[in-house]
Amino acid sequence: MTDRETSPRDMEPCKPYSGARVGLPPPRHPDQGLAPSGTTTSNEERAVTLRHPRYPDDSNILLVLPALDPIPDPAGVLAEGNSLGLGLHHDTARVACAIIANCRWDGYISESSVDGAPPFTTDPDHLLPGRNYYFHVPSDTGDGEEGTAYPIVPSFAHFRFPHNKLPPTWTVSGLSFPPSDDNPPRKFSFENTVLTRDGSCRLTASTIGVEIAHFIPRAEDAWFAANQMFQYSSRPEAVITNKTNNPRNAMLMGSQLHSVYDQRQFVVVPKWGAWLIHVLSGRHDEELASVYHNVPPKPLSDLAVEYIFSRFAWTVLAQTSFLEAGLPRLVVVRGKDGLPTAREVSGQDCRTMFTFTPSLPRSKSRSQSPKKRARDDTAEDEEEDYGRVRDDDPEWDTRGRPRKR
Asked: Is the CB of residue 276 less than 8 Å from the CB of residue 269?
């Protein structure tokens, strides 16, 4: 019998491999979703509109936020037409409006636009079950006569960080972050510190495709410097260049969630005395909300609350369309002396002077390596400088992910 080369015709047909596993189902939370059983209507979406009380209802919307928080007892407290049994966390909405109103933590939410209208609730963890509310700011010497429109912050560039004056719900003792238990890496740098400290995505615990997600984005380095945010760093003296590259201003996050995070679709905020993911986009039955909304992150350590709050402000101030109505507005802008100044701006100027970036620039693919350049001698000598990692460092892509050599 002569040996001959086996042709495809001589081969036995392929048999299914007995070790094959069942395909994965779509991502789903163990509690099966946000809406109470039996209340869901197909494609129904619920949102809460938050308005400025000193302007007409056809041009006074500060924010529109999805209502994704399940109301504990739908039979007892549902607003008319709220068949889903979903509301919006009161203090998340109130603080978001207060940020737009130049950090007026004394502001409150009411169902009426009338001067002196009572607050809907004083409980920070109550839920807003209705569709329309007004954010009031008490009159004072800064706002002039009663009935005068309070000024709003037009963009994050003009937002002045409230040092030592965060909202009360952001400063409760249970929200502080413990120091990291891990020993610092041998090569003491921004990326190594975050990787060693977190180890995996802080939202899912996955180790696949993790990236370093900044709270205050690297694109806001100038704002970071102008507001002296370096003081919340673990090593303020080391913040020289790339100021936002500080371990307390970052955590590990899976690449897909990082992309959505940079599109301002969710934040991490205090709710019911704990850090929870709060989704700002989409319906309750869509994956982002149904899987992640109100879910606590994995254990966090050695972060700065001030940086997380800044991320909330950065997200909220890009979501308001208040200046796009084409009407004159009273706005708070940063003056040449760095101090906030209130002034009236025409509708046209509101549209042209203050622009909003819908999301951060996406990173280049691995095949599009940034142009290499020689590293600074100073950077090489200062191994412990958090700022030594450059945005165009050939070893790291523009999203903080290590490149393969």
From this structure: yes
